[in-house]
Specification:
Keywords: Membrane, Transmembrane, Transmembrane helix. It is a single chain. The protein is mainly alpha-helical. The protein contains twelve helices and no strands. α8 packs antiparallel against α9 and α10 runs antiparallel to α11. The longest helix is centred in the first third of the chain and has 28 residues. The two termini are about 30 Å apart.
Length: about 220
């Protein structure tokens, strides 16, 4: 993202300089109008860059498009650690997490890591510090599954509304209960109802779990 914005600024600078020299000497083009032009185009271009990122991460149905975005975004340690988690590179994700400057992003990644390590107590302590409501309750539901606390699982689930997330949680719960067909049914519905990064993460974690000889979860 930062790279795209950097190149946008450089390109716009070249455009404005070109227009400046082309219009130099005319009454219509003043230093102030050049600044206004540059600022307007810059704001619009940055909005376009962010709009594309939002579309890919939240609304795209194309996993290859999401994967292509993530390959560029891994320069950001938050995304790098997230990709590591999806691919099962937990130890490397833990190392990368130390470089995440945003505290909330770092807590989210570390909570996920503790869940992967089946450390329910540490995960619960971290999850309680997450400010984003839905993210917090998704983790609470996963922690409840680790503890086989079905009442806590249903309580956490009741705070969530997103169908894809609910189906994914039901798939994991069914798998833990040995209800494999139900787990697959819910898992398919989770993927079908998800978009963007969420859909991609379901597909990647499912692929990883299918290759895991000690599999304990559907996703």
């Amino acid at each position: 993202m930062a790279s795209a914005i950097k190149w946008t600024i450089l390109l716009l600078g070249g455009i404005v300089v070109g227009i400046w020299y082309g219009a130099k000497g005319t009454e219509a083009f003043t230093p102030l109008s050049a600044i206004v032009l540059f600022a307007s185009i810059l704001v619009f271009s940055i909005l376009v860059v962010y709009a594309h990122a939002i579309y890919v991460l939240r609304f795209s149905n194309n996993p290859k498009e999401v994967e292509a975005y993530l390959k560029k975004a891994v320069r950001n340690p938050f995304y790098e650690a997230g990709v590591d988690l999806m691919n099962g590179n937990i130890a490397h994700a833990a190392t990368v997490a130390r470089n995440i400057k945003n505290e909330q992003q770092r807590i989210i990644i570390m909570t996920d890591i503790q869940i992967e390590w089946k450390n329910a107590e540490a995960a619960a302590q971290l999850a309680s510090r997450i400010k984003h409501r839905d993210t917090r309750y998704v983790f609470f539901a996963h922690i409840a599954l680790l503890r086989s606390d079905w009442k806590a699982f249903e309580t956490a689930k009741s705070r969530l509304k997103k169908p894809a997330v609910l189906f994914a949680l039901d798939a994991n719960a069914a798998f833990r209960k040995g209800q494999i067909e139900e787990a697959k049914r819910c898992g398919d519905l989770a993927i079908a109802n998800a978009k963007g990064l969420l859909r991609y993460s379901f597909m990647k974690t499912l692929e990883r779990q299918q290759n895991n000889p000690n599999r304990e979860s559907y996703f």
